Amino acid sequence: MAPWDAQVIRAIRKNPHFARSFWLDRAAALIALMGHPGVIFEENSDILIDVVEGTPEITVSREGDRYVMRVEPMLQMDGNEAAHGYGLSSDEKREWDALRLITVLRDSPQRLRVIRLTPAQRRAAQLIADRLILPADAQPELQQTLQVLASHFQVQSDHAQAAREIPAESQLRAELSPVGDGLMLRLVVAPLGAEGPRFMPGHGHQQVMAAMKGETVGTRRQLGLEKDYLNAVLDALPFLPPPGRADIVCEWVVDDPEEALNLVERLPHLEAVAAIDWPRGKPVRVQTIDVPHLKVAVGSSQDWFSVKGTVTLDEGLVLDLKTLMEAAQGNSRFIPMGEGIYAALTRELRERLNDLAAVAEPEKKGGLCVPPLAASWLDDLLAGTSAEMDGGFRDRIKQLQAAQGLQSELPTDLQATLRPYQEEGYLWAMRLAEAGFGACLADDMGLGKTLQAIAVLLARASSGPALVVAPTSVCGNWRAELERFAPSLHVMAYGAGDRSTILETAGPRDVVIVSYTLLQQAQTQFAARRWYSVVVDEAQAIKNATTKRSLALFDLQADFRMALSGTPVENRLTELWSILRFCNPGLLGPLSRFNEHFAVPIERDRDRDAQRLLRRLVAPFILRRTKSQVLQDLPPRTEMTLTLTPDPEEAAHYEALRRQALAESENALQSGESQAQFHILAQLTRLRRAACDPRLVSPDLGIVGGKVKAFAELAAELAENGHKTLVFS
Hints:
Strand content: 15-25%
Number of strands: 35
Mean pLDDT: 84
Domain Helicase ATP-binding: 430-586
Protein name: Helicase, SNF2/RAD54 family
Keywords: ATP-binding, Helicase, Hydrolase, Nucleotide-binding
Oligomer: single chain
InterPro entries: Helicase_ATP-bd, P-loop_NTPase, SNF2-like_sf, SNF2_N
GO molecular function: ATP binding; helicase activity
């Protein structure tokens, strides 16, 4: 049984007149309930109330040419006290006598104040009665009287002076008590210290006197400063409305558990608050957990980095990383620890835990798995924590740092002069390759993505074969550019000649060019061997990760992967996931996880935290420059010639027209027609129209020409990048 319950039980008396009959000594019970943690009102059993002990008070005010002294609470005088004791037992008489000295005041819906008068206080109160009036010239007698009364009452007066004056405490004291799932807050000032009387901040008389440890002491309150402190608290806790009329106590009920715990966490750190007082047995404590409190262990394996972590609270309670992450992703940043103890996550720690949850995957043993591609990100994320990292992780970080310092010279056999931004792109890609990462070069159209990629292929050529994957329409252009800028490389077009021999014999300084279509058809053969470098042009072609084309690219084995795309994201973020799935497999996790943590929150909810994290994850692997950013490095005009190869259907149609034109022209010449020359010119015009688009000649066939397809893609990319297009045909 709790000691406070035992005190209440002692107030139950045995009835001397009847066996097995008991009665409650109400005076003793009221005294026992002071400070009890489980008191309720009968009409509302859901709300706990505070029963506190109060002190009788004497106030002195100047009214014209006189001083008026009053006792609060006012003593209830009974003119026939003896009659009330008639027929009562001795215990009942003692109860009655005690009750006459007790006054119960209800300060608020959740607070009762019990004032007990000693016999000396009662006699003094009887002398003062309703009020005591003294003339203004009786100031010395008033001072002497108040100093005597201050040993029995707390005294408020603007005209009194204690035997010993002490500095006033103007900071506020926060009285907290549980109410349902929330808290009740009462802000008071205790000018004479924690053991002295308490008042509403900024209200009441300036001079206060009371008996403290057998001595009468007094102080002069700084009412203006008390109000300033009150306003400072209200500014710091905006969910608290300002108090109402001056006669209403500064008291609030905070029903929301989250706001209540926020209150407990913030109050101790406010300069305006001197202390926090809790009822007996009801304290709630919030310990703030910040980044430095997190102890993390990072281990390395072949496929993952494992992360485990704990936080130890002051009471020795331990929180593991899983619990912390679940709390960070929940609606509340407070974690209940039992016994009235809560752990509160700071905003920074919560953000880091949420970032970790978005990137890492749960481990069977309770830890987390982070992909090796995110090593640098993880190292930054754990900055400021107490982290223990094994040798494998430290070696990986050193390797990444060394790669960032790499100064790779341009190949001497590159037959081109790169502009400054192109040299930067080349060096960026080479550093990623050195670190074991892939790259997505997303420069604006016309800035030379192909040339930068050729420089990278040439620099890496001696170590193994390279593969270039491109749309059919630009495969010829790739061959021409490679032969022009890197003539020392051996370029082979997959599709012409012995295809199997090309794949089997490709080695250092060899570059194989293949279209998306042929790669998809020979997926198994291309995936069976390892490539030292793979470059994918027009990588937006694999924006749908579930197509056979994309899956064929994902299956490729490569030491370095490079994607070229002027528009890596056209409509949805899953397009970016697909391209980076090729460049850096595993970086963004499975597609379902990417949708959950990034695509849906960003596209549907405009989640800025998700945007920030995604940008931080992908930024090292994507390089994009627009024309406006590198304008000073560009010539007045850049000319680009795209050489296209028609697909088989279009080529067959053109060949049929060519043969028909040749035959008809020969017949016209042999027959000696006078209009033969004009007939031949008409056939040439027809062939030119067919070369533009077969539908200009044979609309019923519905064959879309390669030039129109390429132009549509080109125009779409220009529009996507905000450029204007002027078309001449």
